[in-house]
Design brief:
Largest sheet: 3 strands, antiparallel
Order of helices and strands: EHHEEHH
Structural class: mainly alpha
Strand content: 5-15%
Shape: globular
Strand order of the largest sheet: 1-3-2
Number of helices: 4
Length: 67
Amino acid sequence: MTVYFSRGEVARLFHVSPATVARWTRQGKLPYTLTLGGRRRYPQAKILALLQEVERDPGVEQSGRAG
C-alpha cells in the first residue's frame, strides 16, 4: 500500500510554503496522484527520496533542485 503526503506536509519537509509546492507540482517537478475529490497527494517514498537528494547536495538551493 502506498502512503501519501499532503501538500502541507511536503511544504514542511522542504521548508517552503504550500504555494511553492503547488507551483513545483504545476511545473512537473513533483510526482503526485489525484484523489477522487481532486486533491493532489504526493507519494511518500518518492518525496523522501527527493528530499534526501536535496540534502546530499547542500550547495544547491532547494528550489533549484526540486523546483
